[in-house]
Amino acid sequence: MIIFKTIKDIKEYLAFQRNNAVKIGFIPTMGALHQGHISLVDEARKVNAFTVCSIFVNPAQFNDSSDFDKYPSTVNEDILLLEKAQCDVLFLPSVSEIYPEGSAHTKDYHFGTLETVFEGAMRPGHFNGVGKVVAILLQIIQPNLLFMGSKDFQQCLVVQDLCKQMGINNSTKFVACATQREPDGLAMSSRNRRLNESQRAIAGIIYQCLVSIQGKALIGASFAIVKKECIDLLTAKNIHPEYISIANADTLEELSEYDLRIKMVVLIAARLGDIRLIDNLVINP
Ligand code: AMP
């Protein structure tokens, strides 16, 4: 695996690769890599893409600076994992390489309702920050394929919208990849490594709630009742839900009740101590 730290060097190298007619598969990450990230590299390799992964903890997408400060960094281990996964290139830029004049001086992106609900409502400015960094990275890498995880369901919709706004949705194919989970169902996340033993032991309940909400949709239950059961279950274990919601899976318009005529998604954000976890499941009638 070749590691690049500057935009100039990686652009030159990828231009050369493009001349060799390889298709470039891009996997943007914030590091502290786990099997969820590696599954994206595997997906890219399955379609014979030349795999480019980036690790950049993007300050512009953290509305809470203490969350940014606490974000785990494990670059040496990340490099070993990527090498084992046979990733071809790692882009590891500094903050000043991406934002030479500060992130406030880069183009803002807006996503309408998509940026005001759920994660957008809880983390004001978050998706504008995601838009800024992903746009810069896409301009540098110019991938044929962009691999992102469905674990961040709203982010997938936002980035697909970004690609449209940038006019690259035909040249860069968006590939949404399945959420990788621990044996108890907990979605893999860089933040999981901050859970203590007792928090980790109960964190799988978030997934149990998703499965229950998904399953009960299909037997004609009332979402309001199922939601209340989940809130009670989580709070009894000291897990504090920020939202437990169902929405139209295409628009993220929130639904007060199940609507089996449309594709829905159930979304949960919850806090265990100061660690915030998100997860989702699609409900396909
Ligand atoms: P992050 O480093 O958290 O910004 O994530 C980088 C990419 O990995 C994003 O596209 C995430 O959706 C994806 N990802 C994170 N966790 C998982 C997971 N458990 N399964 C699949 N993809 C994931």
Q: What would your notes on this structure say?
A:
This protein has helices spanning 7-19, 35-46, 65-70, 75-84, 95-98, 119-122, 126-141, 153-165, 197-202, 205-217, 223-236; strands at residues 2-4, 24-29, 50-55, 89-91, 145-149, 173-177, 240-248, 254-255, 264-272, 275-283. With 285 residues, it is an alpha/beta fold. Strands 1-4-3-2-5-6 form a 6-stranded parallel beta sheet, sandwiched between helices. Strands 8-7-9-10 form a 4-stranded antiparallel beta sheet, with helices on one face. It is globular and about 60 Å long. Adenosine monophosphate binds at residues 29-30, 36-37, 39-40, 148-149, 151-152, 177, 179-180, 187-190.
Determine Rg (CA atoms, Å): 19 Å
Give helix and strand order, one letter per element, not per position. EHEHEHHEHHHEHEHHHEEEE
Q: So, the CATH homologous superfamily of the largest domain?
A: HUPs
Structural class: alpha/beta
Helix coverage percent? 25-40%
Beta content comes to 15-25%
Count the E strands: 10
Describe the main β-sheet briefly: 6 strands, parallel
Query: Under CATH, the topology of the largest domain is which?
Result: Rossmann fold
What would you say about this model in short?
This protein is an alpha/beta fold.
Key terms for this structure?
285 residues, alpha/beta, Rossmann fold, Pantoate--beta-alanine Ligase, Chain: A,domain 2, 2 domains, six-stranded parallel β-sheet, four-stranded antiparallel β-sheet, 39% helix, 20% strand, globular, binds adenosine monophosphate
